[in-house]
Amino acid sequence: MSDWSPEYAPKRTSADHTEFMGSRPSRAKAVLRPYSAELGYLAIAWNQLRCHLMALFAMLSEPQDSTSAKAVLYFLGNDFSQRRLLRALLDIDANKLPPAVRKLSTTQTKEILWLLNQIDEGFRHKRNNALHAPLMVMQGVYDDAVREWARSRHGLAKPREPNLCVIKT
């Protein structure tokens, strides 16, 4: 057996963390709870958006059932490529099919393209930054009181990530 096998790995318990941080884990949870809830809502909303875009893709691609459309989209592996494929189908529907067989009106196509542009030009970056920014729990004086807060960009964040801050009042 190698030294890397799971049976030789040190067993970590929640008690191990309190050795290093005292009661920090429970205080950190309290500080991060509102931020965590909002991240959860963001993740759920993003997944709902993806499901709606997948339904549009399935409608435009006309598979026998939506399973084949899902297989194509999931094969691509990332949201950006999936939206590019949806854009290609929108282009075919709007510009290459005769009006009698189009699935979407010109207004519907423009509105969907507007939504895709909003996602690709800014929202996807903000979502990624919010979900992936490393956070540290800080303590100090804020508004003339000692408070704890979560803050990103303390040497760990990527350059494009914003300076996120959650104040625990």
Work out the helicity level.
55-70%
Give the total of beta strands: 3
Counting DSSP H or I runs of 4 or more residues, the number of helices is 5
Strand arrangement in the largest pleated sheet = 1-2-3
Largest sheet geometry? 3 strands, antiparallel
How do the SSEs run, as a string of H and E?
Answer: HHHHHEEE
Helices, strands, pairings?
Elements: H1 14-21, H2 24-61, H3 66-76, H4 79-96, H5 106-132, E1 136-142, E2 145-151, E3 165-168
Antiparallel strand pairs: 1-2, 2-3
Helix pairs in contact: 2-3, 2-4, 4-5
Structure in words:
The structure is a single chain. A hairpin with a 2-residue loop joins strand 1 and strand 2. Helix 2 crosses helix 3, helix 2 runs parallel beside helix 4 and helix 4 runs antiparallel to helix 5. This protein is mainly alpha-helical. It is built from five helices and three strands. It is elongated. Strands 1-2-3 form a three-stranded antiparallel sheet, with helices on one face. The N terminus is likely disordered. It has a domain of 107 residues. It is 60% helix and 11% strand.
Structure characteristics:
single chain; disordered N terminus; mainly alpha; 169 residues; elongated; 3-stranded antiparallel β-sheet
